[in-house]
Write a structure and sequence with these properties.
By secondary structure, the chain is an alpha/beta fold. The protein contains 22 helices and 13 strands. Strands 6-5-4-10-11 form a five-stranded parallel sheet. It has a three-stranded antiparallel sheet with strand order 1-3-2.
């Protein structure tokens, strides 16, 4: 849509320059004010007159009417059929020929359609997933992981260079707990049989025992201190637990289509913490408080940032500080984003502020991408209590439910298990990413797997329907040529015009999703795309034996173009598209 936004901005600039000497709007300023109308029948590009009206001291609706009349005299041989005012807005209506230029671009650009280079030259460091090792991959990690990967996809789609980091929780207090549990009531046989499941059970068991005997907390911390000091037996055990965990995590990531440039856990920064502590001392930032070492943040209306416990062990704030310094020195990022739950807002503010106090200007380019929780009927879950909902269990249950639908509706479908896996993953991922990230995700099986609602299966079924139309056409001797086909008949079909116009909004939707760091914008775009396609399918007979060859090819061109755009869109959301369902 950028090309037509620019054309509308030039028209506006020309009228303003010629008619209103007190207005000094550039073409770029006009372009920045343009927006999408709230309703489809209101046009394709809207210009709000509020700023202009204030300068000219006129009522916005009257100014919009005045400008619309002037603009309509300039539209001959333009990309617009008319300009009209609706209240304080000037609305531009694209011509059918201009609308179908988006379909032509789909075939020119294929998998690159919708992408841009607005981020070229910018380096983004993105930290996401970051689960604690020696624990099962649960649904809370799932949200962080798919949100982070989708943002990674979006940044890459806008030309940014992205460095993805998985900051594994492979150090700190939780390891003292797991080590204590394994050494006191662990079983080598059980560990070999099912490593991560067993380590998770040990973690839960430790906290159950801790509630009966609070002294265990101190004993686990002492074990952690021995680990930090380099006890060889504890180091061997710790390394083994980490290796087993990473091996298990990579299986989950592979299933989700997630990949990282770097696995740099907290332990990676262990040898970098002493230099950090020395720097904090030299800059007079580290002070003692009740036996612990902290950075005072009272001036910034925050509690102190805890760096070293009274037992002398480092806290994860120290490792986060060391990690940030290392990352900037190594990668020289333009912006650094932490995909972390909303409950960690204070922690991120604290360590960002400490970096600023240390004199690092680049700390102003560090940001927290917060997100809400997963909520099932029994509320928030806790690993410590053993009420954890595992990602693999959710996916397997979704897969079973999808298989039952397939058996009922399409029992002869080839590769049923593979399709069920694709749809199950898409269903759970879309339920997550279609939710505004700052809100909690409500998980309801009936909603998640609804093939007719605003869901992942609905989108995947729309793609499969397009694929099915193309197969049916080929079976009837109407194989699509695979190239763009222009058709005056289609350009007179309202549902076809609406569909191709929506193609043109993909790029601006991606840019908005990047600007706000909200993949939910892409999810909403995908739903509108599928609805527009299904509306076209209902209103236009694609395979019509009475139609000319040229008309049929043009219709198939639009169907195949929809497949390309929908696949490009869902790929941004970490979703795959089945050819048949």
């Amino acid at each position: 849509m950028f090309r037509y936004n620019l054309e509308a901005a030039k028209f506006l600039h020309g009228i303003l320059s010629a008619s209103y000497t007190e207005v000094n709007f550039s073409i770029d300023q006009c372009s920045q004010l343009l927006e999408k109308p709230q309703k489809e029948n209101h046009g394709d590009i809207a210009f709000p007159c509020f700023q202009l009206a204030k300068i000219l001291k006129k009522a916005p609706p009257l100014l919009a009417q005045e400008l619309s009349a002037k603009l309509n005299t300039l539209l001959e041989k333009s990309s617009f059929t008319k300009v009209e005012n609706l209240g304080p807005y000037i609305n531009f209506h694209l011509s059918p020929e201009a609308a179908f230029s988006f379909l032509k671009r789909v075939y020119e650009e294929k998998e690159s359609f919708g992408k841009s280079q607005i981020g070229k030259g910018k380096k983004i460091l993105l930290e996401y997933s970051s689960p604690n090792v020696a624990k099962e991959f649960h649904i809370g990690h799932f949200r962080n992981t798919v949100l982070g990967q989708s943002l990674n996809n979006l940044y890459q789609a806008t030309g940014h260079e992205v460095i993805s980091v998985n900051h594994l929780g492979d150090w700190g207090a939780q390891f003292g707990n797991v080590l204590y549990a394994y050494l006191h009531y662990g079983s080598e046989e059980e560990l070999k049989k099912s490593p991560i499941d067993y380590l998770t059970k040990l973690y839960v068991q430790f906290h159950e025992e801790q509630e009966k005997n609070p002294e265990l907390t101190k004993e686990a911390r002492l074990l952690l201190k021995e680990l930090e000091l380099g006890d060889p037996k504890l180091r061997i055990l710790w390394k083994r637990f980490c290796d087993l965990s990473i091996e298990d995590l990579k299986k989950s990531y592979s299933r989700l289509g997630v990949a990282f440039d770097h696995y740099l856990g907290e332990s990676f920064y262990e040898d970098k913490v002493p230099a950090l502590l020395q720097e904090l001392k030299e800059k007079n930032l580290l002070i003692e408080s009740e036996g612990a070492q902290v950075v005072d943040l009272e001036a910034y209306k925050m509690p102190p940032c805890l760096i070293i416990t009274s037992l002398g062990t480092t806290l994860y704030a120290a490792r986060d500080l060391a990690a940030a310094i290392y990352r900037y020195n190594r990668f020289q990022f333009t912006e650094c984003y932490y995909v972390i739950g909303s409950e960690q807002q204070l922690h991120t503010k604290q360590f960002f502020q400490v970096l600023k106090l240390m004199g690092y200007e680049w700390a102003n380019h560090m940001h927290h991408i917060a997100y809400g929780l997963y909520r099932f009927k029994d509320g928030k879950f806790s690993t410590r209590k053993g009420k954890v909902i595992l990602m693999k269990e959710v996916i397997e249950e979704a897969k079973e439910k999808v298989l039952s639908v397939i058996e009922a509706k399409n029992p002869s479908l080839a590769k049923k298990a593979e399709v069920a896996e694709t749809v199950a993953l898409g269903a759970v991922i879309f339920n997550d990413l279609s939710t505004d990230r700052v809100k909690d995700v409500e998980f309801d099986w009936e909603k998640v797997l609804d093939f007719e609602g605003d869901t992942g299966p609905y989108l995947q079924y729309s793609y499969a329907r397009a694929a099915s139309i193309l197969r049916q056409a080929e079976n009837k001797g109407h194989k699509f040529t695979g190239t763009y086909q222009e058709s005056k008949i289609l350009q007179s079909q309202p549902s076809a015009i609406t569909l191709v116009k929506h193609f043109g909004r993909l790029s601006s939707s991606i840019e908005a999703a990047v600007r706000l760091q909200k993949p939910s914008i892409i999810a909403n775009y995908a739903l509108d795309l599928a609805k527009n396609f299904n509306s076209f399918y209902r209103q236009v007979k694609v395979i019509d034996e009475n139609a000319s060859k040229e008309e049929t090819q043009a219709k198939l061109c639009l169907v195949a173009g929809t497949k390309i755009v929908l696949q490009n869109t869902l790929a941004l959301l970490c979703m795959r598209c089945p050819e048949e369902m």
